[in-house]
């Protein structure tokens, strides 16, 4: 058994001394928002940190959340009640980004079992194509082949330069060259839900909402935001039918000073980031903080976010995030980028508090 890190010892001590109860009372008026992506369903090599976690881990988290007795609200209701000051104590909302197929096949049954509401922020360019997300698949193939020396960005750019109808064959060729079997392809590990699957998810209780059509990097392409939201909303309306698409999630947490005005003008009434934190009454609904769950996030850290201990211990953040601690920051398994970035991952960081979330592909060259 591995020795506990300083962070784990502090969090365990905080729980055993009753600090959790105190923290919960001190932060009772603040909204907790959990952030997930997809689940890892491919046998063998495990890939992803925050983007894909094990189905068993997600099930265990939802069981813990249910056992905690904290009120879990639909996001829309939580936003309204946060603004009105009528939020129940220590309320929680669950959000899931992107719309990976595993969200429908493996996450939704768990949410249904525990009767937990959740919002799905769906990106839709890939939803209209039976094509795995190219840059994520390429990163996986290089990692699974044990070839970190390969330039996955260049390979991604080469495949994304092809007409979309030729990209799947190119991905399969790359996999064959690297000797990686196609379980990932058969299990649709890197596919985004189709329009029919999004409609099914909505019908079964997921609240499907906005995440841009092409999963753009807002920091770089802020002026594309209105059109991206319009296309994203139009796709979802065609797939799902009439409902309000007014909740938004910043792709990969990227942001820009002009984004807020553009979001409001596009009829967006709440937007979530990837910055860790709670949301106090009166918080800006277009800059909501979340807790990014991930493969290396322990149950103690998860509990500490829900109880408010993480928030109360924030002044100790530098200590808690010291070397050797594997939290949800700084554990990037690679650069999920479509080859448009000139600098290293760290240069795109939004500053302290923003998680090192890998970047899902923008759609690349459209055809
Ligand atoms: Zn995303």
**Count of individual helical segments:** 16
Indicate how many domains the architecture comprises.
2
Identify the CATH architecture of the largest domain. Alpha-Beta Barrel
- The total count of strands amounts to 9
- At the fourth level of CATH, the homologous superfamily of the largest domain is Glycoside hydrolase/deacetylase
Q: What small molecules are bound in this structure?
A: zinc ion
Kindly state the mean pLDDT as a whole number? 86
Oligomer: single chain
Largest sheet: 7 strands, parallel
Considering DSSP H and I runs of 4 or more, what fraction of the residues is helical?
Answer: 40-55%
Q: Kindly, what is the distance between the CA atoms of the first and last residues, rounded to a whole number of angstroms? A: 53 Å
Q: Beta-strand level of the residues, as a percent range?
A: 5-15%
Shape: globular
Explained architecture:
This protein has 367 residues and is α/β, with parallel strands linked by helices. The protein has two domains: 280 residues, TIM Barrel (Alpha-Beta Barrel), CATH 3.20.20.370; 59 residues. The chain contains 16 helices and nine strands. The strands form two sheets. The protein has a seven-stranded parallel beta sheet with strand order 6-5-4-1-9-8-7, sandwiched between helices. Strands 2-3 form a two-stranded parallel sheet. β4, α5 and β5 form a beta-alpha-beta unit. The N and C termini lie far apart (53 Å). 48% of the residues are buried. Bound molecules: zinc ion.
